[in-house]
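Contributing new records

If you add data, match the layout below exactly. Sequence lines come first and carry their own label; structure lines follow with theirs. Keep one chain per record. Anything else will be rejected by the validation script.
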Amino acid sequence: MTLTRFQMCIDGQWVDALSGKTFQSLNPALAEPWAQLPDADETDVERAVQAAQHAFESPAWRNLTATARGKLLRRLGDLIAENKEQLAQLESRDNGKLIRETRGQVSYLPEFFYYTAGLADKLEGGTLPLDKTDLFGYTVHEPLGVVAAIIPWNSPLYLTAIKLAPALAAGNCIVIKPSEHASATILELARLALEAGIPAGVVNVITGYGASTGAALTRHPLVRKIAFTGGAATARHVVRSSAENFAKLSLELGGKSPNIIFADADLDSAINGAIAGIYAASGQSCVSGSRLLVQDEIYDEFVERLVERAKRIRIGNPQDDRSEMGPMATAQQLAVVEGLVADALAEGAKLRLGGKRPEIDGNGWYYEPTLFECDSNSMKIMQEEVFGPVASVIRFKDEAEALAIANNSQFGLAAGIWTRDLGRAHRLARDVRSGIIWVNTYRAVSAMAPIGGFKNSGYGRESGIDSVLAYTEQKTVWINLSQTPMADPFVMR
């Protein structure tokens, strides 16, 4: 089999690992290798970070006006739009995401660059109304320098865009480390960045394994911020590494999001919302609505209708437009899903649907839409993130019980609320401890809407104006307006 060969982007050049080592990326739909990529080590990380630092200090980037940076980001957005089909096909092949979903994601990706481009020259400082008439003070926002982005395999283009765009808008240079399971589209994004006219060294992409390449990047002393999306176990290593050099952090981690359906909800819409929340993207989304909380009065009807609807989900090759659910992205993730399903059965959860691999042509890592009924929110399947097409449903009596169940979780990334009662919607939106609340919808995104979680779902926000400010540090400037020199060095002015 002929493998597609990729190289890393360092300082505007396409290079192999200095060691010459490579690794293979597997196509999840076929469980077969399709690409060969450089396996970077610490020496490659060093040259990528040094390239970014050099670019940050270079007049070609450092002296560029904020307006000019915004124009470059807009041009990059245009190029993404022009190459959207190629990017969508590449991501679907690399990580097994449905082509209909990758097309959808890529189609709105340019908006993130357009929106952020407009913010580049809006990072205004301010004058300080000092109570000292002989002093003038003002503040400015300055870029951090070299920043790092650690990207998971489930939505690499989208999760890179929401880090790359604000980092560049603020004037930083970046080293991106995508997952070894899904690096191809990020390398293509780097190519488009160069084509857009972004100077060499501003955007660098290194490929390799997280335990070696990623670890070397996160502990590098020149890296001033790390933007990480992934699991809690890896995040703990990132936090420890960042502490060595006091690098800033943003962490977008896991979730066990409650999708709460009240008796007055539009059931047709809520069922589609439940399907979207857990079976779209094969459940491989940090915001998956994997805990379904359903009010007593409609519980039986809702579960029966959900089972019947989920049975009709078409599982198949992700590059087939007719498919509605594709494979797990990795063999390891499939094994995790199978293990947690086995644990749920052993704990007494009632299996209503799925629970096994489907009978399907080929050797891909597919798993059936799965649904458990649970008697207690303390069951493992109700508390642990599965990151697969596995939903757990539980009853609740009233609003107070729904809120108690929803908040009884180590996570707090997202939540869905389905009701026609406007007051109830606002009360729960206020009281549910999650960073994203969807009312009568699910998985809605916008370039201006912040993304991030509470509790063990991480900290920091991506998207929106605050995401750009997070890639800056504030400087305060004092100017003596008087002609009088400082008289007493031992007294504060």
